[in-house]
Amino acid sequence: MGNTHRTGNTYSGGGRGSTNTGQIGNTIRNTIREGDEVDESYRDFAEDSGLTDRQGETISNRRDVLEEILRAELGVHDSRLIGSFTRRTVTGPLTEETDADMMVVLDAQEHRHWIEQENGPRNCLQAIKRRIKSDPRFSETDVKIDQNAVQVKYHDSTVEIVPAFRYSEVPHAEHPRDGLNLFNDASDGYAIPDTHGQESWIGTNPRAYKQRFDARNEAHDGRVAGLTRMMKKWSENNDVPTKGYAMEVMVYNYFAEKAETGGTVPENYHDLARDFVDSLPERVRGTPREPVYDGAVDNNWSSEERQEAAEKAKRAAQTLEEAKKLKEQGRTQAAKEKLREEYGEGFQD
């Protein structure tokens, strides 16, 4: 597939002192080749779990249309896709469960009333909803408000429009760290509406997390995004009660913790997945926190859901260990079949 990920395996050829001769050497070479076949299946699975170029273009085109509609009546400084779509952690194909986040930065002078009104956040969201619904192309489309966004539901995905002002233009905007303005992560970012409970404007900076994610992903040859897509797909195929963003954060934190402690990150996907899944039960029982503001990303998990996710992670760890033993025995096909049982049909055996 033209994949550039390294397998992490380095082997020397035959020569003086080498054991790669005769029947023993053939066994070693066969085991290496078959082990690489398992790793190749993993790499294909990581790559194929994402969106295709055409699906990505579909989302981008929808953003363009929505931006055009909003620009016609609202003072729009800028709009951009944010979230998992830009970090390449969205799983494909597009389905009703696929979300793409779109931030629309508004003119604070033109819409000062939304900033100053007590119910300004909801009024802002309502205005965006009305503008979308007034367009004939969306008259029959399900468009609704969900906490801090306007959801536009297509047959195969949802675009969530998040209105925003520059953080510096909303004097009373809450800082994500309990109002303590000790960091610039929100101050140089944006204020978005929060209609959950008491209405307010709250700071956010999607660029800050993306920059951290991209840097760590590049340092590991794309394996942060790749492992995230794999684990999201595993979660989907096994009905694990874990939100996609929470899984992404747990994967990111795994790599961050390795960097902090000097731990070794496996370079092939099979060992990488095993190592991460071994840590997953503890992660879902704890409180996963996103890296920029240290905010919890598991607010809606019940104790029963945590236990269910932990049990399924334990089972996955056992399956991956069994597949590892089959791989070491040279039983490549059996190893790949075992992995397909766990990951689902997307993992080609």
UniProtKB/TrEMBL annotation:
Biased composition (Polar residues): 1-10, 18-30
Molecular function GO terms recorded: nucleotidyltransferase activity
Signal peptide, first to last residue: none
Ranges of compositional bias, category Basic and acidic residues: 303-314, 321-343
SUPFAM superfamilies named among the record's database cross-references: Nucleotidyltransferase (SSF81301)
Superkingdom of this protein's organism: Archaea
Region (Disordered): 1-34, 287-349
Pfam families documented for this protein: SMODS
Protein name, as recorded: CBASS oligonucleotide cyclase
Species annotation: Halobacterium sp. NMX12-1
